[in-house]
Amino acid sequence: MELQLTRPDDWHLHLRDGHLLQSVVHHSAKHFGRAIVMPNLRPPVTTTAAAVAYRESILKALPSGSAFNPLMTLYLTDSTNPEEIKLARQSGVVFGVKLYPAGATTNSQDGVTDIFGRLPVLEEMINHNMPLLVHGEVTDPAVDTFDREKVFIETVLSPLIQRLPKLKVVMEHITTSDAVRFIESCKEGFVAATVTPQHLLLNRNSLFQGGLQPHNYCLPVLKRETHRQAIVSAVASGSKRFFLGTDSAPHDRQKKECSCGCAGIYSAPVALSLYAKVFEEAGALDKLEAFTSFNGPDFYGLPRNSSKIILRKNPWRVPDTYSFASGEIVPMFSGQTLDWLPFDH
Ligand SMILES: NC(=O)N[C@@H](CC(=O)O)C(=O)O
Ligand SMILES: [Zn+2]
Ligand SMILES: [Zn+2]
Fold this sequence. Notes:
Keywords: Hydrolase, Metal-binding, Pyrimidine biosynthesis, Zinc. This protein is of the alpha/beta class. Helix content is 33%, strand content 19%.
């Protein structure tokens, strides 16, 4: 059995830099046309100049002949000014501005402490039709980890959208039925969400199955099964508001398997196989292509890709690890067998 799909894009990807970039970028470039590249490097990509330089290093790291197009983002801080948004738009290579609430996730320490203090920047983004990409969790240590997305929607995102109804917003890596309901309640074309393979396939039991499982730890953390089911129903419905964003987040194995393991799941090499599995199990393979290849570019106002890929039923074993110059990375579904295998058309 075979499916032909318009070439997909990844609307949420971490490519890192240095050795790690060199060893992961080809996994995304192999089948994806474009990717929104997240700016949470150390130091973060806070200026257009830095985004342009980062883009150059990504292009250099690509296999020769690759047509992969990295779409860059800026990391919003408490000192980002509206002028930077103008520069970003003029550059032609920056496609979004990322909101990390300070302290919410990996490399978010330079993030925003109060988004309502950034209104002039957000208004400039509206003028330039530049979307705000949101890691949607509050950071208040008094709020239970599993409630942080819901509380963010209630106390930050919903009031923000009411204040700035013309701002385009992508709620990244949604994890709850609350997020699904919220996105569905917003104006189509203005608010959308990316969905990761892990939040479609795993629930929070996967964190503790037979012992602590650091490779299933990401942020926002996996939630209970009812939330997973709500997210599957949302994507299987064919709604245009949801699209593919892997949040593929490579970390050296030693940084995951240690006394304070960091958050992030490496899914780039398996993501398309996993999304196909989700849609097949939901009886919605006919909705897969819109999710992987249409809804994202339509939301961002970019053309859909013209080339195609094939997904073939061809069981394959996911490698246990991928080696890179200074370590190894354990991928999602490491060592397991997946049915669908992507090929270039
Ligand atoms: N998702 C994660 O758990 N980690 C991401 C950061 C992020 O997307 O929040 C990373 O950069 O490692
Ligand atoms: Zn995030
Ligand atoms: Zn991410």
